[in-house]
Structure formats: C-alpha cells, structure tokens
Amino acid sequence: MLRNPELALNTLSTSEEKLAALCKKYANLLEESRNIQKQMKILQKKQAQIVKDKVHLQSEHSKAILARSKLESLCRELQRHNKTLKEENMQQAQEEEERWKEATAHFQITLNEIQAQLEQYDIHNAKLYQENIELGEKLKKLIEQYVLREEVRAIRCLDNVAGTVPCHNEAKPLTETLILGCFRTFVYV
C-alpha cells in the first residue's frame, strides 16, 4: 500500500490508473473500516461484560461490607453477652461460696454445740452412775440392817413366845417404807 496517496497518484500517468488506484485505496479503507467496526463491536461487548462484571462485583462488595458490618455488630453483642454471663457466673460463684462458708460455719457451730452437750451428758451420766453406785451401797446397807433387825426381832419374838421379851411389830411398816423409798430412788434415777 502506498504511504502518501497524492505522490502515488502523481506517479500514475492516466486517469484510469488513478481511478483504479483510488478504488483500490477505497476498498482497502472500507475493509479496514469494517475490521475496525468488528473489533469495536467485540470491544464494546467486552466493555459491556466488564461493566456488568463491575456492577456485579460492586454489588458483591457492598453485600460483603454489609455482612462484615453485621458480623462486627454481632461480635460486639456476643462479647457484651459473654462479659455479662461471665460477671453473672462470677457473682453466682461468689454467692455460692458465701453460702457454702455460712453453711459450713453453721454446721461447725452446731457440731461444737452437740459435742459440748455430749460432754455435759457424759459428765452428768458419770455423776448419775456414781450416785447410783452410792445409793446401791446405801440400799445394801439398809437391807443388811433390815435383815439384822428382822433377825433380832425374830429372836425377840421367839423370846416373847418363850415369855421373856415383848414382840415389837410397829417397826416393820416404817422399815419397809424406808427400803421401798430408797429402792424407787435407786431404780428411777
């Protein structure tokens, strides 16, 4: 193809050659124009697809930003909720520990009181046991005295039957009353 058409046309001698050169030049330009238009349509389609992709990507980006914002908000809310739960759990744990300490202290006090009462009961039982032993010994002495008196009275009564000493039956009820009273005290104490 010729670079400068005017110079190329000037070198041609006849007008038919010039017309044929112009027609050829026009045909080349027309074909080049059609190729450029085809390329332009292809580029326009590409541009339209790129614009469509760009809009889609912008939409996706906006959705992602919105989702991220929601996630950040949910994270903050979750952190606040976790903090509240942690504080409540700590408070409950402290309250439980206090209740446990109070219950333990109360249990220990009650246990100490029961132990003190048991010690007092042991002392009291030891005293009662000693008193029972002493009363038993007194009763034994009284019975021995009673038996001795009865023997003496029996001897006197025998002597009375023989006519030497009068028999004394008045002492018997008083002695039995004393023995029975001591025996009741010994048994029920």
Give a description of the structure.
The longest helix has 148 residues. The model has no long low-confidence stretch (mean pLDDT 84). Helices cover 92% and strands 0% of the residues. It is rod-shaped and about 210 Å long. It is built from 3 helices and no strands. The chain is mainly α.
Order of SSEs, N→C? HHH
Based on helices, strands and strand pairing, what is the structural class?
A: mainly alpha
Which term fits the overall shape? Answer: rod-shaped
Using the CA coordinates, give the radius of gyration.
68 Å
Count of separate DSSP helical elements: 3
Oligomer: single chain
Percent of residues in β-strands? under 5%
pLDDT < 50 runs, ≥5 residues: none
How are the secondary structure elements laid out?
Elements: H1 5-11, H2 15-162, H3 171-188
Helix pairs in contact: 2-3
Short description:
By secondary structure, the protein is mostly helical. The protein is 92% helix and 0% strand.
Quick tags:
189 residues; mainly alpha; 3 helices; 92% helix; 0% strand; rod-shaped
